[in-house]
Design goal:
By secondary structure, the protein is an alpha+beta fold. The chain is built from three helices and seven strands. Helix 1 packs across helix 3. The two termini are 15 Å apart.
């Protein structure tokens, strides 16, 4: 059986939803993030978090790194995500449960 998510309608009510770049990056994060807590390389990764670097996102989305970086920063400023920098960057989707049913 394949995993799936059910996207809540309130995603389309965000002011940034009409921006194709922001929407693509945010939806990719929703699809890839953990939907239940896990441990990865000795780190506890919570529901709504993902360890991913910008190069991996570039490969997945086929969007230039600069555009992904700008989109991530905009989403962080808007309070949609939190970015923990480091060797293994962790991105947290704030209010994860408001966006999807798992």
């Amino acid at each position: 059986m394949e995993d799936f998510i059910i996207l809540r309608e309130n995603v389309i009510k965000n002011t940034w939803y009409g921006d194709q770049m922001l929407k693509s990056v945010f939806l990719e994060l929703l699809l890839l993030c953990n939907h239940e807590p896990v441990e990865f390389n000795g780190k506890k990764i919570a529901k709504g978090q993902i360890i991913i670097d910008i190069e991996s996102m570039e490969s997945l989305l086929n969007i230039p790194i600069g555009n992904i970086d700008i989109s991530l920063n905009q989403l962080a400023v808007l309070g949609e995500i939190t970015i923990e920098e480091g060797d293994e960057p962790i991105i947290t989707i704030n209010n994860f449960n408001q966006y999807i049913y798992v």
